[in-house]
Amino acid sequence: MAITNMWGDIYDMADIRPPHEIVEEQGKLLSEMTKGSLQLKIERKQSNTVFNYDIYIELTSTNYKQRIFRLTHDFKLYPANIYDEQGTKEYKSKDQDEFEDNLGKVLSSPETMTTISGLMAQARLSANDILV
């Protein structure tokens, strides 16, 4: 006797990417674009079914880091919320496409660009420092 499938269709979810994976990809790009001077650091905390991430830009030469946003979502991944630390805005994303749009707004915002410019200037200063 054959077993009846009561689950319905379970589809392959390979094309669904968790928000933190998308952020990690952007971190790799930041490191490449700045020749390793800046890196994105992700600190993860979990409380029951809610995942919380603090996202920092770190100046590699000094280990100084500046938080640029926080990310939260539950085990379903979406909706995902971004709390912009630089511009004090909140972005709610109902799906992956909206999350990518909102993440782009935060990463390319004037406030984030100011942070990156300041850290890059510090990187140049650190490279020229003579310790005695």
Question: Would you summarize the structure shown here?
Answer:
The chain has 132 residues and is an alpha+beta fold. The protein has 3 helices and 5 strands.
Describe the structure.
By secondary structure, the chain is α+β, with helices and mostly antiparallel strands. It has one domain (19-114). Helices cover 35% and strands 30% of the residues. It contains three helices and five strands. Strands 1-2-3-4-5 form a five-stranded antiparallel beta sheet. The longest helix is centred in the C-terminal third of the chain and has 19 residues, at 110-128. The mean pLDDT is 90.
Structural descriptors:
132 residues, 5-stranded antiparallel beta sheet, 3 helices, 30% strand
Q: In angstroms, what is the radius of gyration?
A: 19 Å
Give the percentage of residues in beta strands: 25-35%
Largest beta sheet, briefly?
A: 5 strands, antiparallel
Helix content: 25-40%
Please give the count of helices. Answer: 3
Please give the number of β-strands: 5
Catalogue the unreliable spans.
none
Q: Give helix and strand order, one letter per element, not per position.
A: HEEEEEHH
Annotate the secondary structure layout.
Layout: H1 19-33, E1 38-47, E2 50-59, E3 64-74, E4 80-84, E5 90-93, H2 96-107, H3 110-128
Antiparallel strand pairs: 1-2, 2-3, 3-4, 4-5
